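Our consortium's second objective concerns turning raw sequence data into structural hypotheses that experimental partners can test. To show how far this objective has progressed, the report includes one record in full. It was chosen at random from the queue rather than selected for favorable results. The single chain below, 292 residues long, was entered without modification.
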Amino acid sequence: MKIGRVAGIEIHLNIFFLALIGLFFVAGVLGKGLIAFAVVFLHELGHIISARRLGVLVSDVELLPFGGVSRLGEDLFFDPSKEIYVAVAGPLVNVVLVGLGVAMKNYGLWDETLGPFFLQCNLMVAAFNLLPAFPLDGGRIFRAWLAGRTGFRRATYYAACWGQAWGVIVVAGGFLGFLLHLSGLDVIVTGLFLVYAATREKVTAPYHFIRHLLRKKEEIARLGVSPCELAVALDTVPLGEIIRTFVPQRFSFIFLLDSNRRYRGMVSEDEVIETMLSKGFDFPVGRLLEQK
């Protein structure tokens, strides 16, 4: 649900977050719901400001129970250092808000009911988002770190799996807490959405991966130079396995060997991608040499 526009960026409220605020309203503590909204909004604003400072386009933001999702330019996803910088900015805003809240308490600008909730909300949003679970901020940091070692697609898959696992843990913990009267339904709602968001990212990972590969080709054409990555593979290996070795910001070359481990030739990342798009993932990489 669109709720407005700030600095040219459309702000959307996810239905799960709307339901969470509704729970606060039904419980008679709407003030806490509005504080939760403000904390999440400022958290996401930290991501937006850091992304814009890096020259990354931000088109719109969807506010979720545990943070938000910004529609960011492709530059962010294909540059791990930028993704880490932007991901850290959100929790950092919450830490600053905690410090501001403590200062307000020391100066007497404090509400004994809403003040502690403000501090608790910021600490929970920061801590929760730093879990290594995609699409949380910690998951994005984990994905960016892992992408340079296992490749973008596999890193996204692993991080999303962690997101699903943590979502299940949060739901189970929230359900137990609700039965023991230690927490409300908001924890269960948050966990359910984390499972949903992680699953969605897992499903769309192949699409983002192909965009990532095509983007690298554009970057080389623009810059004229790129670091490279070397790999060795048997000529019978399918292209789908070859592309798993491709990593961000490095152009790959693959040395091909026959069944007797003798050198047959070399193919480039571009050749693998173009053939994969036309012949499919199961096409043997050695047959690229026959096309030359």
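The partners drew two points from this record. Strands lie at 2-6, 9-13, 58-64, 67-72, 228-234, 251-257, 263-268. The first strand starts at residue 2 and ends at 6. Both points have been shared with the crystallography group to help prioritize constructs.
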